[in-house]
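Put briefly, the fold is written as integer tokens. The lines below illustrate.
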Amino acid sequence: MAYVHTLFNTNFLEYASYVIKDRAIPHVDDGLKPVQRRILHSLLEVDDGKFHKVANVVGHCMKYHPHGDASIYEALVVLANKGLFIDTQGNFGNIFTGDRASAARYIECRINPIAREILWRPELTEYVESYDGRNREPLVFPAKIPLALVLGAEGIAVGMSTRILPHNFVEVIQAVQGALRGETVTLYPDFPTGGLLDVSDYAQGQGKVLVRATLDTSDEKRVVIREIPFGTTTESLIASIENAARRGKIKIAQINDYTSEKVEIEIRLPRGVYTQDVVDGLYAFTDCEQSISVNLLMIHENKPRLFTIPEVIDYHARRLVKLLELELRHEEKELLERLHLRTLERIFVEERIYKAIEEERSHQGVSDAVFQGFLPFRAELVRDVTDEDIERLLKIPIRRISRYDIERNRQEVQAIRERLEEIRESLKDLVACALAFLEGVLEAHGKAFPRLTTLQEFRRVDVREAAPRDRQLRYDEKTGYLGYGLSEGTEVTAVSPYDRVLLIDASAGYRVVDVPEKLFVGEGLLYAGLADKELLAETVFTLVYRTDQGATCLKRCTIEQFILEKDYALLPEGSRVLAFTTLADGVVRLRYKKKPRIQKLEEDFDISGYLVKSTRAGGVRLSVKEVSSVKVLTSRAKSVRKQS
């Protein structure tokens, strides 16, 4: 038992923590999982502007990633197909058909310049030792936009998972701009596969979305799928359509896949079937419609945390301001250092301080002579002269001193001073600086990222409505069986396997069941019909019955509420049904038994003259006389249903 305690409290928790933080869940700062971060770090290290074999990149990345080349290769292909940071050459697979990429030795890639613009800043990046201590890798990249929303992410860890949908690059940047201005931001997913999207239940990234294929129904005898739902492939979509056709959910004659660079799946329809007959079925019974649940889980401050879309946008808006301030401070420091060195060189050459060292015989004397030479010009210097400065000056070749271009130096110093002034102005209004930076990114790259998915509020397709009612429900009174699988019996109504039916038995008990293939319901079934709530709300059930005290009563009711498979009673216990009908206006004719002092042996009652009540309400007493028979007549005196 002690071993089990250690196993769970130590080993399992360490493993769970490792998988959550170092494998499956992206970090909110740069939106990347560790393997993705290591791949981009490797590409930045080997970048020379040319394409590199993926096999070489994978090998380089293995210095940082301890899980083998297969996992690196798969992650690199997935990241490359997102079309943001990695330029590709060769067959990287097809996101539409699901075809796999070629082997790593045959395909090439390189880092896209946009990665250096919004992701790479070594001077602001915290580096840690790799798994074997031989190298150093970034803890997170100083990303300037919320890459988790742009790239999307999916991962399963111990006890938790993440599902972040990709969003449009331009819209994400515009949302960050809105957050910087203090506006309320709204952001919805955008998928590389296109399609239609209903975000009614998106709930700021904590709900779900519905995605649909884009169907071309311009030809009434064929349906062409032009765009597929996110998360599917043409192969899986075709398989789902063929499966639905085999099960009788939809009717198709032929399906052809002409997909190459764009999706084109042609569905030809059989004789007598048109596009309007199958569109709802495609959405209801195939992968043409998908529901995707969203879970914005990311690592924040070394812990997993659930976010909403506005929280991620606001976090990155604040983070962008901080990163730009750090960049400007760092650049200001570097420029001041350059200004100091250029000023030292100019004074050293222009004032001929190097002449003062000609008579010195010791190194210290030379250094002191140079130091004394700068004393009259201290006001022009950015900082005090150090020994390192003097050593740098003393290493300047005589040829360079003799050809020194003072005017060029002055121009360079002037450019540095102008840039320093720009930096100081930017530091006064970092929000404006952040807005300008994002606007520059949009101008440079925005046209390459058009929105692909169309936002649309869907009309919900009920599978019961979409399924064709091509099966005949039958009731065999001799055997007491009901179902669409019977070959004999009275035809009741056409049904689909998704329908529900209302059954009222001989004792006026009722229940609603899924339409059965074969179900024993007993003899004397009073009613069997579709349990459609709208239909039932318009159907009035009329029962004539004898109570256990001998009185004859009439009850009219509608059945609008029910629980599936639950038994209910329409009549009081001990009652016996004498007649049943669904006529809205008819006549109930009671015939009494002959007895002394009974002069009137028949009596008619107009059904429409009695109120329609709930199923729990009692009936209205018609007579206390002993009844020999009951007839329900139409206006033409035709008997509909009787029971003696």
Notes: Residues 309-350 form the longest helix (42 residues).
